[in-house]
Amino acid sequence: MFGFWQRWENLATYMAMASTFTMMCLTTVDAAGRYLFNAPLLLAYEFTETYLMVATVFLGACCAYRGGGFIRVTFLVERLPRRVQEVLLFLTQILCFLLSVLFITAIIYQTPKAPFSITLDVLPTGPGYLIVLVGLVFMSLAMLLDLTKGKAGFLGGESPHLEAQTVRSGEDQ
User: Does residue 47 sit in helix, strand or coil?
Assistant: First the structure.
């Protein structure tokens, strides 16, 4: 199970990186074509916003979750006793998981309404919705796995403050 999980995380991370690189190259070529030759690439902006940016964000979400890359404000929680911190972290983990399940439900509801066929002026948004769904499902599974282990992956393991507090309390004894 964990071998598959690690391979998926690596694949999703590399796909997010490739999407970022492709977005960078496509935007550079589009801007150069627009300003140097007065001939921008057809549908470059739409392709970037509909697929590449979505893939970068949502396929990279699991990696950001595991690495503790999400924004958090800890100045209040750091001042609480360790046991209270652990309970709040666990409750936050549950809340984040439930919120991602809510997002998954919304995407499942919206995806059949999104067009999957190509028209002359607009790219289909349906594949973008599927990318969001895949990224959120795997991030939610990572959260669920961490909940069963009793840890908070969005902290990237353990909070540095909790570790420092453990060391200090060990010195006091």
Answer: helix
Whether residue 144 contacts residue 96, with contact meaning beta carbons closer than 8 Å, is answered with no
pTM of the prediction? 0.77
Would you state the structure tokens that stand for residue 76, as one six-digit string?
């209040």
Residues in the chain: 173
Q: Would you call 126 helix, strand, or coil by DSSP?
A: helix
Phi, psi of 157 (to 5 degrees): 110, -110
pLDDT digits (tens, 9 = 90+) for 116-152: 777 666 788 888 999 999 999 999 988 888 888 876 6
In this structure, the number of other CB atoms found within 10 A of the CB of residue 53 comes to 15
The torsion angles phi and psi of 125, rounded to 5 degrees, stand at -90, -15
Q: What is the DSSP letter of 40?
A: P
Amino acid at 3: G
Query: Which residue pairs, CB below 8 angstroms and at least 24 apart, start in 119-126?
Result: 122/46, 123/43, 123/46, 123/47, 123/50, 123/51, 125/50
In the chain, domain spans: 2-172
Nearest Cα to 31, choosing from 19, 18, 17, 45?
Answer: 45
Six-digit token pair at 86? 């652990």
Please give the C-alpha separations between residue 6 and each of 1, 62, 85, in angstroms, as whole numbers.
Answer: 9, 11, 29
